[in-house]
Amino acid sequence: MSTTLATAVRHQPPPLIAEPVIEVRDLTKRYGSMVIHEHLNLEVRCGEIVVLLGGSGSGKTTLVRQMLGLESPTSGTIRVLGEEWARMDEETAKMLRTRSGMMFQQGALFSSLTVYDNIAQPFRELGKIPEDLIREFVMLKLEMVGLSCKHASKMPSALSGGMVKRVGIARAIALEPELLFLDEPTAGLDPKASDEFVDLIATLHRALGLTVVLVTHDLDTMVALSTRIAVLAEHRVLVAAPVEEACAVDHPFIREYFLGRRGRRALQALPADRRASCRRPRSKTRRSRSTNSSTSSASRGLKAEAAKTKEPADGKQITRVLDRAVHDRSGAGHRVRRVLLQRRSHGARAVRPDRAH
Fold it and tell me: Of 35, 87, 163, 351, which residue is most buried, by most CB within 10 angstroms?
């Protein structure tokens, strides 16, 4: 990553969260009889980094493609930057696409083009920019993503996985878009390269004032970058909220995803005050109910056995009940012991006159 750019924005606050720039309403998407989305709703606000989470086949990439206008929904509406895709003419759609950038999975570079030509392609599609100016733009974008200009003449096959992704994001931000879509940006990277790429995204978000929609399975990336997360399951968005609020939703997929070993480890990166919110009160309630239930059962069992002991003639029955009560540490055990001790005390006084005779 460009040290100069990172240093320049280090103390710069993130973009302000403002009005919605993407609005998905009652979206349904089918391929034949296969339902991908059904009555799905989602908003993305200006300045946010929204992470789309979900299992394989949940439709994360399909949703992004519909937001970009690359696919049409079966029903429902998608508004991007105030325009509805279904009602746009070709010229408006073309202009809107210049305001969005996309980095596909694995970078998706043109394998027959050099790094330079891959990044230059968006400029050339506009058809109005001189080649010498395109060259300046390309070198600037390479520097912004932390690559030396000497890599411009290389072919994609000569690049490492991390470099391919950096070239992919350089191409995505070539036209200074307002919206940036990233599909699995850290997939296949080693931990060090993944951390560096996360830092790069955060830097570009601050420097360019981007609104980012990011698809990922990487919990560490999600925690490090997200303003909000949108969890896709059951053909819809289960929740769209900050991480600490989303992981508190009582749903099997969310429990498995966030509260497993890997999820808990990733959540440790949250600040302490936000991390505390991830502890779901529902679990405590269940434990409390379970404790109350066991206490009640112990109480009923001890009281039932105590009720059978009406006559303290030789004290053996009371002793058996007391022995059980001693080993019961619940509140019920303490109460039963107190009652039985009182009964034994009264019973002992009651039999003394008989012994006197």
Answer: 163
